[in-house]
Write a structure and sequence with these properties.
Number of domains: 2
Strand content: 15-25%
Order of helices and strands: EHEEEHEHEEHEH
Radius of gyration: 16 Å
CATH superfamily of the largest domain: Flavodoxin domain
Distance between the termini: 14 Å
Shape: globular
Amino acid sequence: MGSKTLLLYSTTDGQTVSICERIKSELQKYSKVDVSPLDNSVNLKLDNYDQVIIGASIRYGKHKLELYEFIKSHKVELENKKNGFFSVNVVARKPNKNTPETNPYIKKFLEISLWQPQHIGVFAGKINYPKYRFLDKQMIRFIMYITKGPTDTNGTFEFTDWNQVDLFAQKFCT
């Protein structure tokens, strides 16, 4: 177990962190794994790692700017390592939008990103209405109404397929 893996994440509500922890549990069978928020990555030395995976969530149709800034600053380092990327979005709850080839946010990321990851995954996220501020709750409820998703603002709805997360981690290890 001589290799070291860095799992970086950009999250809005915490589901990306949960997914990173699940990936870590699989990867640590083969590697030492560190998990860190992307917004705290200024002092991280990518040279200390053999592998890097970045996970980022979508809110209102976009990944956070910090994701693209990190990629711009570390593109060469990322490309010189085994690397991967995954997006977490509620659109991926739909069977026809739950693969890197069919998910609109992965397609958009690959179009505008300077980096083309070696391993790509997409996972459905979670809606936790009680946790949201009033405006977010109403906006997300409206989006769910339009896309035929859950609109009960008293509910929490997890769509993550944990088997799919495990498969991503296992494929990354091989």
